[in-house]
Amino acid sequence: MDKSIKKVILLGSGALKIGEAGEFDYSGSQAIKAMREEGIETILINPNIATVQTSEGVADKIYFLPVTPFYVEKVIQKEKPQGILLAFGGQTALNCGVKLYEQGILEKYNLKVLGTPVQAIMDTEDRELFVKKLDEIDVKTIKSHAVENIEDAVASAAELGYPVIIRAAYALGGLGSGFCDNEEELRKLAEKSFSYSPQVLVEKSLKGWKEIEFEVMRDRFDNCIAVCNMENFDPLGIHTGESIVVAPCQTLTNQEVVKLRELAIRIVKHVGIVGECNVQFAFDTNSEDYRVIEVNARLSRSSALASKATGYPLAFVAAKLGLGYGLFDLKNSVTKTTPAFFEPTLDYVVCKIPRWDLSKFHGVSREIGSSMKSVGEVMSIGRTFEETIQKGLRMIGQGAHGFVANKEIVVEDIDKALRQPTDKRIFVISKAFNAGYTVEQIHELTKIDRWFLDKLYNIKITADELRALNTLEEVDFELLKRAKCQGFSDFQVGRLVLKDSIDGEEMAMAVRNYRKGFGLAPVVKQIDTLAAEYPAQANYLYLTYNGTKSDVDFKGDRKSIIVLGSGAYRIGSSVEFDWCSVNALQTIRKSGWRGVMINYNPETVSTDYDMCDRLYFDELTFERVMDIHDLENPHGMVVSVGGQIPNNLAIRLDANGVNLLGTSASSIDNAEDRHKFSSLMDELGIDQPKWKELTSLSDIHKFVEQVGYPVLVRPSYVLSGAAMNVCSNDKELEEFLSLAANVSKKHPVVVSEFVRHAKEIEFDAVAENGKVIAYAISEHIEFAGVHSGDATIQFPPQKLYVETARRIKKIARKTAEALKISGPFNMQFLAKENDIKVIECNLRASRSFPFVSKVLKINFIELATKVMIGEEVTPPAKSAFDLDYVGIKASQFSFARLQKADPILGVDMASTGEVGCIGDNTDEAILKSMLSVGYSIPKKNILISSGDAKQKAELLKACRLLADKGYTIYATGGSHKYLSENNIPSIRAYWPTEEGNEPQALEMLQNKQIDMVINIPKNMTHTELTNGYRIRRAAVDFNIPLITNTRLASAFIISFCNMTEDEIEIKSWDEYK
Amino acid sequence: MKEAVLHLENGLEFQGYSFGYEFLAEGEVVFSTSMVGYPEALTDPNYEGQILCITYPLIGNYGVPDDNKENGISLNYESDKIHVKGVIVLDYSFNYSHWNAVKSLDQWLKENKIPGIYGVDTRELTKYLRDHGSQLGAIIPRGFNTPSKFYNPNLENQVAKVSCTEVTKYGKEGGKKVVLVDCGVNNSILRKLVSRDVELIRVPWDYDFNTLEYDGVIVSNGPGNPEFCTETIKNIQVAMEKNKPVFGICMGNQLLAKAAGAQTVKLPYGHRSHNQPVRLAGTEKCYITSQNHSYAVDNNSLGADWEPMFINMNDGSNEGIRHKNGRFFGVQFYPDNNTLFDDFLNLL
């Protein structure tokens, strides 16, 4: 080990975004753990405040700053570390590291890169170098031409022959890449790719080949192991992040695995990796021909998956290898006796399934391909493929009960839907089977290996057999057992046999009882890395019906507490709930209880088996949670730290004898049920926006006549505004209602008054027996109407009347008392003048818990957990009003990846991640946070279209500042006129429809003449292909910073006009006191 | 679906369903943790007399390839026949999918009259074997009787059953002459040797190869207990006296050790997998190796002129020995991805 290293910098990956998500919180946390174990001081740069790695007691010092060379250099200057870790923060950290190297900064400060050298990273990132490098060892790569202009791209494609794939060099997750069948398509895509990178690669397409990945470790002694191999269910052509991935490979022979393994190791040795590396292969389906697709010289999404799939902590070991250890020096962290130099053997099969949220975006294409669009993923574990895939399809949490027994999806043309995959492809396969398609036909259309399709067909056969019956008594033991071994849920069996004749929950319960009558129950198996060859005290567990005996004993001493995790990351529920889950577990364990986790998201820290006494990597369905509860017989269960999924289970769990810790299920029901909550608010004399639950269109119209447009329309149980919408006129209302009515039959439509130009305020708190013991009030920068998950949030509030804050506190206290809250809760308010209305109340931790906890430096989850488990707590004396600094939480959007989506904000959440930065004043905090989510300070030209009259007025001050600072403002018609009237100089720019006039706004964007776009939509209508849409979309496609909200635009402009980047203070979290 | 049961000698039973040849199978029940390679495993002579439990649950996925041969050596199988007595799996895949498959595993087992059982909790069985050592047992399809006494392959000379019966030559004449003592040699070893431009003389396990003219000896892998191979041990001793380079593989390593006066011991449940980590003694070089053996050389019994060459990183057992003169050495694993064959040939 290198003893000269006393202090290291680790670069994080920043906000969660499509292509770079929670997996890097997991890998970074592991790396920090490895460093600390060696007594090395760790300095973390990561503005993502909701992560576990940016928590107290993880890294020694944390900088909530953008991960860019400018800030990293400043931190280096200040901290004087000896080493830097580049491999644990995704492409963001890697790109930053390469720039630091190229700019000579690493050399200047004599900083040692721990792990894979930067030159090796560059050899894998630059396509031409990469091909050359692999040619040296006779390894085949995809024939690829690196070009620097469009004409060369066209020429290359002609030479290679269509179809071709093009991709931008140095871009994360396949940004700006895609397939082209002809020259026209190529020209269109190439233009976009060049906006991301000066170098674009044109390659022959190998669509239809298998896609195989290997995760390889190498130490500095040249010892190599291939820890895991994985096979994509979807053939080449679909980004691995968009594909169902199966580990280990299922359709390869020994000879093929040996061959690819040997190639992977040859590559890793030749490139000179020290640490972890991912190698992706394209593999022919009719021979042993192969091509290397790419090599990722860093921890990746796949490596996080491989770690969870095998139990081998890749990031932890990689960090140790970076310090100079050999694989033989380190121990297998599961067996604790055997060495880390080994290749895990699995005796189970895992499936990763992506989670998309495409319905959240207006206008987005639902087709999936070579660019990533999914926002999260799940991993399911089972002992047959059927069991595993059905578990996984339930886990993604989009209404599916498995592969069969779902609500039939509507597909116009099955052939087309099979040929051109969308996010619903697997359900199209299910539909196709029902429509009589054979495995062979589906294989022809999809190129999915027949083996996978045969397995899916097995599920269909069992479903048919069940469907042929009409009562449970007709289902014999053999059939029921087969169904359970194939992963059927009780609900699926119930629906197939009973045909929705009774309520779903009742049906599932009937099957559960019937099944128990046969003694049919799942067993618990360990993931021990060695397929039971050696005894292991593994606490990493899953449930399966394919077994006769559990691997672990159940003490039944009621000394354990189960925490339900958050499930797949999705828009509206992400790493913040992982932070909450991890903190709850830690508090539980510190208090002497055994902490038991249930979660299935491979990107999380909560599914690291070191975090708890037992980890059940399994479903968060009522059925599975009850199975585990029956076995574990715990003291109780925590349902309030994992977001909405556990919260939604509360009432059923309670009804079935589970001891819910903290706030009671009936209180949760009183808060979740709109009617009950509303009458409670009425009783307490607390105001709410007018609303009504309605079932007919005429009633709705009557209600709208009373309150006036706009109105907010939504179903009663909501998660981050799913299927909710603002309607501004009759037409929109009627259009939307036809969709919303389909969403939920059980819950009628709720229409509420929509208050415009109101402030939105968050109240995060912890209560004990109805008494608030800690709280944080924060305010949105944007006016109400922007979803709280998308809004920019300021804490402590800087522009809130004292009277408003006082009233809010009072309301919250009354509510907590009435609902007898014990644990975390969150309320949202509208404030106009001092008039306050409650818009939401969640009796669980909210998205902003890590943010307020870290800014205030009071761990709300620790407090809440202590309350829930009955520990004594002292209410913290500190108040937000004592803080001499400001925190800003800003949102990260991933519109660039969501082709055609309108990058506009509304009541439906669209952001994929967030950052939280601290500053000595609002300007500094705003600037840091906006730069952290990818904005840059504009150099010269700003394009403004400023919406309606009120919005124009709101922007006036900021525009004047811009003009004073010497910026050139280009403004479209109305805005230009308004600015002139107010004596602010601007140049008129023309909309696309104002043809023949110069300058054309769109052309200026294409020519990169604009440094920032402020485009304020006039109203909430999503009229596609309007002028505004085209400008907004062009800004996103050409990678030009875009702001669509006047309040945020003003705040940002004011901040960068008031201070320069050089004036930003480089202070670590602990320096804000 | 016809029910079957796996019955162990101590009475323990595992329920499942019959596949392959529907008949009684008796043997020593062992497990392998290799995740792929059932056609290779089933034809590996080291499994002679054994019933194989495969810990990876999904088996049969890619069917079974044809028996094409090159230079008289099968390209896809490890020998000319299936050597296991029976197969135990959890989830047999009735449908297979692979471009080079010609039949299903089920069909192949039927053709070779080898019984199989699926639906068994293979992890539970493996844990049992791990904790209690390998067991004698039988696969008993419904309708067959439980045998009163179980066949025990360890009481027989398994090497004699699987070794060739006559001398065969491979490769071109004029090259270095290498004697390969066939104790149940794997085709992959044969293929590697034949590709290396030597004249290979494959002889039966008890053949007195010292009557031949040769440059070096390789003693192959093979099944069972090395105690039975006294003739081979004697022949190796003569070769060493003549100072001919000797390279032992698996069983060959054990026989070399015995020829050098050392002892072998039976491992509790053997090493059977593709992922056995070994370390080249005294170095920082480590290898992931494929192994299949029940017995191992006792490190402590090695004479003064000998030393351990490789050590198993999991359990510290011997994975290879070498004589200090550098001319005699053996490894306990299949030398797939390293330079051991070349090292040996360089000695000639």
**N- and C-termini, Cα separation of chain B:** 57 Å
What strand order characterises the main sheet of chain A? Answer: 14-13-10-11-12-15-16
Rounded to an integer in angstroms, the radius of gyration calculated over CA atoms of chain A is 28 Å
Derived from helix and strand composition plus strand pairing, the structural class of chain A reads: alpha/beta
Helix content of chain B: 10-25%
CATH-assigned homologous superfamily of the largest domain in chain B: Class I glutamine amidotransferase (GATase) domain
| Total number of beta strands of chain B | 23
Name the overall outline of chain B. Answer: globular
User: Uncertain runs of chain A with pLDDT below 50, 5 residues or more?
Assistant: 717-722
Task: Report on the biggest sheet of chain A.
Answer: 7 strands, antiparallel
Over the alpha carbons, how many angstroms does the gyration radius of chain B reach? 20 Å
What share of residues are in beta strands of chain A?
Answer: 15-25%
Could you characterize what this model shows?
The complex is a heterodimer of chains A (1073) and B (348). Chain A is 36% helix and 19% strand. With 1073 residues, chain A is of the alpha/beta class. In chain A, a hairpin with a 2-residue loop joins strand 27 (759-768) and strand 28 (771-783). In chain A, helix 1 (23-37) packs across helix 11. The two termini of chain A are 36 Å apart. Chain B folds into two domains: 3-155, Glucose Oxidase, domain 1; 159-347, 3-Layer(aba) Sandwich (Rossmann fold), CATH 3.40.50. Chain B is 19% helix and 35% strand. Chain B has eight helices and 23 strands. In chain B, helix 6 crosses helix 7 (251-259). Chain B is globular. Chain B starts with a strand and ends with a helix. At the A-B interface, helix 9 and helix 16 of A face helix 3 and strand 19 of B.
